[in-house]
Amino acid sequence: MTSFGYRLFTISVYRGTKRSPVNLKDCEGEHYKDVVARLLKSLSTPVVGDPPASPEDPSAAVSGDVRGKPALRVEDVEVIDNTIRAKIWVGRIGSHEKAMSHDGAIDFDISDKAAINGFRVIFAFPEDDTQGVLAVESISRTCPVAPLIKWLRYKSHEESYNKAKGSDSAALWWRPKVEGLADEARLAEMIEAGLAQGLVLVKKSVTPGRTRTEKEFEIRAPLVNDGKVKQVARLVRGWASQAKEADGNPVTSNAEAARQLAAIVSPEIQDLDLDDGWVVLADPDDQVRRINPSTFTDVFTYKLSEDEPVVTPRFYAEVRETAMGLQPAAKLAIDWPHL
User: Fold this and answer.
1) Which of 195, 114, 116, 136 has the alpha carbon at shortest distance from 4?
2) Residues 6+ apart with CB under 8 A from 141
3) Which side of the chain, N or C, has fewer Cβ within a 10 Å radius?
4) What is the pTM of this model?
């Protein structure tokens, strides 16, 4: 059974390899919204494989046998107010041998082509700030945000490199970075709804040669007591809130989190010298995740339908409603259009 949904990310932009995000309205006289729209349109021609590390090294581009390489193409790019909507097609060359018709017609050989699925994407930007929101459709467990961001980065670098050829000016390009848009309230709801499968606590030790660490022991504890479930849910929300206050960096270490979880399991193991611990959570699609202070921002899929994707107006409306609900906690102020 195929499930359809979407995932939400924050998107920030950096000048080349710089480490501080730029104001989205200040991309050398352009808003990044206009940059993204142009770069997406440049991907209307299929690209195969991973992009080269730099356009200065064209030899790194994929050539020769492309079988097994990922392929990507973008279409239907549309700018509506401060949002950009598009559809990206992704697949892998030679992933399937033939396409079979249900009516008995002759099979079509696709062994030298990519069997592709289409994923809707939505970018939403503030007029004057450093972070926007990116929504990417997911089909079952597939969400192609990584290749999309890689190719946006490369296409910006390539565009700037070509402009700077033959001149003394340095190529100025834009590097997008995405992170999961955290939803600690939803995490807590999922835990309280019984999706938490249990807790794992780990003690590590250094090998005699002090060259690496190994697991000394592991404690697994189920969550069957309602009071303990609520304690774990509150603890997870606390980790998330602390991380927001620290600009995304976890205040609570994984070792401290392990001790906090151990205290919930039993006072007898609270003082063990634990190094790591996490909540084992199965999301509605049965994808198992580890939740601790360094991983709580893992992206979760907002499920929409089974077997058939929802129509685009509903897809946009659902994304808009979810994102607007998360924006205050994420300190975002994006005015989403109603269309």
Assistant:
1) 136
2) 285, 287
3) N
4) 0.79
